[in-house]
């Protein structure tokens, strides 16, 4: 079994449970809000959009802290683990971005149809789906890569050197947040043209993945005490 397939099997239940929780919160809270006032922001973007960052950050950390040693000691090479982990987080990030984007479109469609959208609600139509996906995906992937790099920095260097390594490890997430991330009102920084922002963010993230692969290949696997 490939590393990516094994990782999907290990995390499948967690992914489904987490998705179920997010959807449950959405369908519970939004009707309560609209019962008192029109919706002036996307609750889904605020909720699932945050999950697209912080949940993938934790997932990236778990790749190193929970899986690196297990896979290597069970016969997988470090190179194979790094490659499989890269495939895994890329597919997960794309899936998360698709869920966030489609969820926003569905929420938008429903609240507009019911007349519960305020004038400043970030309406998303079918034509806007690719553009929003193009913002959420780089952010989701960047946070996963940052999590993996932070965990690998501590695993490989330990202590204060791991703390220092957190600074460059945070670059993928920091760049994506500064350039392409959108908030619950569908707004982004808009510092540069859209395609340039996405290209810069993805370039930094891909570089981070390359660093992850190089550092993983040379990492010493720690023995369990006792």
Q: Provide the low-confidence segments as ranges.
A: none
Which oligomerization state do the chains in this entry correspond to? single chain
Q: What's the tally of helices?
A: 7
- Largest beta-sheet characterization: none
Helix/strand order, N-terminal first: HHHHHHH
Mean pLDDT: 92
Helix content: over 70%
Broad structural category: mainly alpha
Question: Approximately how much beta-strand content do the residues carry?
Answer: under 5%
Topology:
Elements: H1 3-36, H2 43-73, H3 78-113, H4 129-157, H5 159-169, H6 171-179, H7 194-217
Helix pairs in contact: 1-2, 1-3, 2-3, 2-4, 3-4, 3-7, 4-5, 4-6, 4-7, 6-7
Characteristic key phrases:
7 helices, mainly alpha, 226 residues, elongated
Describe the structure.
Keywords: Membrane, Transmembrane, Transmembrane helix. The chain crosses the membrane at residues 12-34, 54-72, 84-106, 136-155, 162-182, 194-215. By secondary structure, the chain is mainly alpha-helical. The protein has one domain. The protein is built from 7 helices and no strands. It has helices at residues 3-36, 43-73, 78-113, 129-157, 159-169, 171-179, 194-217. The longest helix has 36 residues, at 78-113. The radius of gyration is 19 Å and the shape is elongated. The mean pLDDT is 92.
